[in-house]
Each structure stands twice: as C-alpha cells, then as structure tokens.
Amino acid sequence: MSTSADHRPGPAAVGGDREQMRFLQQVSRQLAGSLNVRRTALRALGFAVPALGHWAMLAFFDSDQVSVYSHDSSGRATGPTPLGRLAPDHELSRLRRRGTTARYALPAGDRPEILDALVPSEALRAVVASRRPAEMLAVPLNIGGATNGVLLLARADDQETSGDVLVAEEFVYRVAATLESARLYEERGQMAEALQASLRPPELPELGGVRLAARYRPGAQRLSIGGDFYDVHGTPEDFTVVVGDVCGKGIDAAVYTGLARQTIRAAAFFDRSPARVLGALNEVLRGQLADRFVTAACVRFQREPESAELAATVGVAGHPPPLVLRADGTVDEVTIAGTVAGMIPGLTFAEAGVRLGEGDTMLLYTDGVDEARGPDDFYGHERLRLLLPEYAGAGPATLCEAVEQRVLEHLDGGGHDDIALLAVRNGA
Question: Alpha-carbon dihedral of residues 95, 101, 105, 110, nearest 10 degrees?
Fold first, then answer.
C-alpha cells in the first residue's frame, strides 16, 4: 500500500557538506534560547523529519520509566506520551546502557521484528510500519555522562553514508544540550514556585469577635516573597499575632522567614508569652542565621470573659512597637523596646500590656513603612501616627490599604524595602 511518506524527501536533503552545515546552523538558531522542554522536543522532531528520516521519535528515560514524543499517523508531532516501565532487556534499555549510536537494517516484510524491539507502543509501531522503512537509526542523547534519551529515526532507504550518521549525531548533541537547559530552567522554576508557596504569607484565620487584615508588598520586583513576614495562630480566646523582618531581600531572605515563622509557631505552642516566644526565637536563630538578624513584634491577645475587651501583651525584638487606633480616633503607642533576635545569646525580653475596647484596632508594621524614603525624606513614624485618626471606625482591611497607599505615594515611584502590615480590630 502506498503512503504519503513514500514521496517525501529523505536524508539526501542534507547530503552535501554545505547543506549539512546550513541545516545544523538552522537547528542551533531555531532551538537557541528555548526554555520549554515540550516545545523544544516538538521542534526537534520537526527538524528531524524529513531532513534525517521519514519518521522520528524522542524517547526520554526517568528511572525505569519512558515517555516519548513522536509523529502520529497524520505526520503531526505529539507528546509527551508516558509509556510506563521499560524492561531491562528492551532494546531501548540496551541503548541506554551502551550510549552509542546503532543502525538496524529492516528486511522487507509486513512487520519487521526489530520494530517490536525498538518502539515501545503498538500504535507507534503501526505508524512506523506504514512508512515501510528500510533502516532504523538510534542516536542516544548523552548529557553529563548519562544517556537521558534516544532519538529513533525511520529511514526509507539504507544507502546512507557514514557522514549522514555523523550529521544525525551532531543534530542530537545540539538538541540534547538545548533540552537539558530547558529541563533545568523548568526544574528551577518549579522549585522557586514551591519555595514561594511555602514561604508566602499565610491566609488569615477566622477568629470570632475579631477582624483581621494584612497587606504585604515585597521589595524585590517579580517576587511574591521577601524578608518580611506575618502570622496569626491560636483560638478566638487566646491567639498570637507576629510581624517580623529578616535582614535582606528576595528569596535569600525569604528562606529565613520560614525558619523564623515556624520557630515562633513552635514556641507559642508551648508558651504564648511574647517574652518567652522571642527568647526562643533568639536562641534558635543564633545557630542558623550567619551574619543575619531578625526583628519582630509579638502580641498575645486574650479575650476577657467578663467584658468585651481584648487584653494584649506585647513584646518586641528590635522592631517598631505597634500602634493602637481607638474607636474615638485617638492613637496610643505601646511603650516597649527590645534587642534584635539572632545575634546575642541569652537575651531576655520585656512585655507591656494594653487593652483593646470595642472598635479599637492595633496596627503592626515593618520598617518598610516608616523607613520608606521619598524624594526628600523618610515617611516616618509621625506621618503614620497622624494618618491613623482619619480611619477611626474603618475596617482593618481599609486601614492597611490606606497606609500602604500613602507609603507608595511618598515613595513617588522609588524603590522600597519589603512592606508588611497587620491590623487586629476588636469587634465587628
């Protein structure tokens, strides 16, 4: 039965030295900069047919599993298609172990046995057999001393010279290098996404009788994480709120925010006293943060059973103390100070108490707010204090958004440090 593949140009399309060089240069140009594995593999198949053969398959190995990209019965490149486990005696497994090019002559017949040994799919074997190839060429993809895959080519005649095999090997070398770069890029991207997901500020819990809101803006563009962090944990009757700042920016600092946040959670599980939580944070971080320190404000809130008030106990480690916006618009400052955590062994921390009545809001923030530098000066503590009365009675989300917006206006388009805000309002 005649097929369209019988009339397609074969490897002679790159038979001359100049044609071969132009072909390889075109491959390099078209694949250069590709950072997507699937796109690169499909492009490679597009080059391989008809220049190197009448049908092509890229098989990739992952442990003892194999997945393939290939041309289907219509000639369209598809994949990846997982094909499961490869037996040790499968011809592709042998090619993987040898890591050298192999040629297979196919005797005339309806279904040469070598196809069963080479092509790990009944559907693909049918496609190859319909091309009636006279030869199969298998070229390994070798990167870093390991064979990560094989390019399998079905060729219509067996009159090719050794030079054609060398072109195929050079082609596969360039494809393998591009695929490896794309794989590493995708792998690092997946790792970065997983890291960001684990370090991104958490969803705020629902705590009956209390309204919570937070805003977070990293200083490094194109990232959703940085050195600032916040967290809330506990029950509606007894919960802890923390805002902190690891020195530095970006992913490097964000890695340590995870350590700081988890240390605080673990310490508060045993004792919610802010002084003891910060003391535990200091001791744990001393052995972990080389040339780094952490500032933090930690507040324990306890519901007064016989009143509508929240009793707040505050501790700070080198961090701006929180501000309390009263329902009537007055602003109280919590008078408390403490040394940064992670630098000096054996630190002890003080505590200060404050009560939140119905409609009162406590605002915790990082130095990305008061130390935001505009064209002339810093935003400063006093600007923040004067801003708050405008939002007496407003919800905590509105308050956080307003502070962030004023800070950004003050920056006037300039760069900034990480910014974190967390507001706790007593009552609806």
Answer: 50
